[in-house]
Write a structure and sequence with these properties.
53% of the residues lie in helices and 10% in strands. The chain has helices at 4-40, 76-79, 82-90, 97-103, 139-143, 147-152, 157-178, 182-194; strands at 45-51, 57-63, 107-109, 135-137. A two-stranded antiparallel sheet has the order 1-2. The longest helix is centred in the N-terminal third of the chain and has 37 residues, at 4-40.
């Protein structure tokens, strides 16, 4: 299981990497926020409350990609703009999460931060998932990178999400915490970059 020392090393790595990356990405992020504002006709920086480490709530930031936020599960691409679909597919819309990593809400690698009603309701030994900060990428994130497309094919996407996908994510994320290594984080970061 991940130790306190490993958590500290993980945090130091996150800070060093984000400070290295920010100078390269700050201007593209500002540009994308401006473009997304015109594209969606709403402020181009989207924020939403998510569940973080130890169940603490925080605001996650993304480039806005949807015209209408009142969408049904499995229908994200239908309310996304043409540009928004591209940003979502390439994960470029997640660049503002560098800020979340910098301030300590997130890590580069970990379970994806969920909306309330999932991680905050974990019980028993499943709660070890909350020991780590949610990540920009992770094993479950990579496995379900086309989650919205999977849900679009289901007759009952909400039920399928909670009973099949969420249950599998819990299993994957528990395994990540129980078998954590710094090497694993590096491997997942490289896989995220080169396996899009």
């Amino acid at each position: 299981m991940i130790t306190k020392t490993q958590l500290k090393v993980k945090r130091v790595f996150d800070v060093v990497l984000v400070l290295f990356l920010l100078p390269f990405f700050i201007i593209p992020i500002v540009f994308l926020v401006i473009v997304a504002t015109f594209d969606t006709k709403k402020y181009g920086l989207f924020s939403q409350v998510r569940v973080g480490q130890h169940g603490k709530l925080f605001k996650i930031y993304k480039i806005r990609t949807l015209r209408d936020e009142q969408h049904k599960l499995g229908c994200l691409n239908k309310s996304a703009t043409v540009l928004g679909k591209y940003l979502r597919k390439t994960k470029i819309d997640e660049l503002p999460q560098l800020y979340n990593v910098l301030v300590g809400d997130m890590s580069f690698v970990g379970p994806r931060p969920d909306v309330e009603g999932f991680a905050d309701r974990l019980e028993g030994e499943d709660r070890i998932i909350l020991m780590v900060k949610p990540g920009v990428t992770g094993e479950a994130t990579l496995k379900y990178k086309n989650e919205d497309l999977i849900l679009q094919r289901q007759k009952k996407p909400e039920h399928y999400n909670r009973t099949i996908i969420w249950a599998d994510k819990v299993k994957i994320n528990k395994n990540y915490v129980l078998n954590y290594s710094f090497y694993l984080d590096l491997k997942l970061i490289l896989k995220s970059i080169f396996n899009r």
